[in-house]
């Protein structure tokens, strides 16, 4: 799990990279000879206590439509499918997908998760989905943004992420971690950190701490154009220590809206509801 950052997406090239770049590639403990692929963010959960805690937090039940992103070697897959009987899994690594296909209780989608249309999947199944996964950290934000428009077809999401990312997701105004991610996700979800996970719980261990976040879509959300909201918070947080008059002021003028929004504050001081109210105004015809 490379710490999250922008840049090139992992492709499906050769299959030779070692997980850590330290010395010779070593097979993952209990992985039947599998060598972790760094470009796929492969850090496999091996701590049975942590796995049990995560499964308890998810609390899968028979008949529920659970979907796991990145099942890997099955650390979460096995105890979850034991409880819910059928499980859909999305795995990009073709070798791991081939192993998973041998199991009749799994519906395997071999694909890049960012190409899967989860709204369509929910329509086909005729039920709302419960999303779970120990996500590849190098693309965790793109995955969260890919799922954002699907919030209304989702019951909840339990994701393992870099602890630092979870802190940003749940941060409130005035906190140093309050950021674009906080505003964009708090628009659509109620979120809480449910399990903290140290590096030693994985093989290979990542360089960062991890945490599992529970994301529950809010029943009612302001009708806001996500692109407008995203553009607006990007401008606002571009220089988070500056007074908004010097950043968001010009953007508001460009949108041609009149507002009593207080621009004498910094981006990090403004509650989510106020950003949403401002973005909602942009959609209204003049
Ligand atoms: C951090 S590992 C988690 C593996 C396993 N769930 C566990 O907890 O041990 C991330 C998993 O996501 C898979 N993966 C990486 N990029 C992906 C993508 N774009 N789409 C789907 N799966 C991906 C990796 O192959 C790997 O199995």
UniProtKB/TrEMBL annotation:
InterPro entries: KsgA/Erm, rRNA_Ade_diMease-like_C, rRNA_Ade_Mease_Trfase_CS, rRNA_Ade_methylase_Trfase_N, rRNA_adenine_dimethylase, SAM-dependent_MTases_sf
Record EC number: 2.1.1.182
Purpose of the protein: Specifically dimethylates two adjacent adenosines (A1518 and A1519) in the loop of a conserved hairpin near the 3'-end of 16S rRNA in the 30S particle. May play a critical role in biogenesis of 30S subunits.
Cited SMART domains: rADc
Name of the encoding gene: rsmA
Pfam families: RrnaAD
GO cellular component terms listed in the entry, alphabetical order: cytosol
Region (Disordered): 1-32
HAMAP family linked: 16SrRNA_methyltr_A
Keyword field: Cytoplasm, Methyltransferase, RNA-binding, rRNA processing, S-adenosyl-L-methionine, Transferase
Protein known as: Ribosomal RNA small subunit methyltransferase A
UniProt similarity note: Belongs to the class I-like SAM-binding methyltransferase superfamily. rRNA adenine N(6)-methyltransferase family. RsmA subfamily.
Keyword Transferase among record annotations: yes
PROSITE patterns according to UniProt: RRNA_A_DIMETH (PS01131), SAM_RNA_A_N6_MT (PS51689)
Organism of provenance: Aquabacterium commune
Ribosomal RNA adenine methylase transferase N-terminal domain mapped to chain residues: 50-219
GO MF entries: 16S rRNA (adenine(1518)-N(6)/adenine(1519)-N(6))-dimethyltransferase activity; RNA binding
Transmembrane segments: none
Compartment list: Cytoplasm
